[in-house]
Amino acid sequence: MTRRSIFRAALQGEGPALGTWVKLPTVASMELIALAGFDFAVIDLEHSPIDLETAYDLIGVGLLSGVSPIVRIPALEPGIVQRVLDAGAEGIMVPHVDTEHQARAAASYVRFPPHGVRGVGATSRAGAWGALPREEYVRFGQEEAVLIAQLESAEAIRNSRAIARVPGVDAVLVGAADLSMSEGIQESDPRVREMMTDAVAQATAEGVPVGGAGGAGADAVRAAVDVGFRFVLMGNDAGLLGAAAREAVRAGRSVSVS
Description:
- By secondary structure, the protein is α/β, with parallel strands linked by helices.
- The chain has helices at residues 6-11, 27-36, 52-65, 78-86, 100-110, 134-144, 154-158, 160-165, 176-183, 190-205, 218-227, 237-253; strands spanning 17-22, 40-44, 68-72, 91-94, 146-151, 171-174, 210-214, 231-236.
- It has an eight-stranded parallel β-barrel with strand order 1-2-3-4-5-6-7-8, surrounded by eight helices.
- β3, α4 (78-86) and β4 (91-94) form a beta-alpha-beta unit.
- α2 (27-36) packs parallel to α3.
- The protein is globular, with a radius of gyration of 19 Å.
- The mean pLDDT is 95.
């Protein structure tokens, strides 16, 4: 059995790969995301109450339903990377990667020797509980598992080409919210778009796709594509639920009783 990355395949499509954040600690979110037709979902361990056990369940549902499960870890820690990948995650997203040194450390935690320091755990879900040949388990970790580095500061933008050049960095995501916060400006400030455009140019020159996060509408995706993003996170599960609920109430309140 040769396992392929759903996320990598989605990047080869005509349009941008579409994903969303998972912030609610319930597997129902991943089921609904799959039914909606998203290509990937980023399980957020940085800005949500989701713990490793719940992430483990979300990963399993994603794999079985055809959605690429990627996990944003809260900080760069090799033990968490190891456990999440052996739980079957197709990739890791690392927040606040500002330097080439940090990118190299992240890449080393994702890859097996000689390219990294990840330990072998082929009896986990990633190794089909030992049923998968060890060679195939290792091959997926070396060739298919995705490392996405988040660029969220002016320093990260300045180092974007060096970060993208690191072997094992498969994609970068520009975090506009933290980027603008680090500079003390609004996300709408033209300087934010300039920095995003610069990151796209630098990473693309190294053959590394760039993505971003934004709203859940066509205008937001169009804006992301215009910047040069190849993958887009459209809102999050909580936000999508809230927006639908508010629209339902608005529609209901518009009806008068005669």
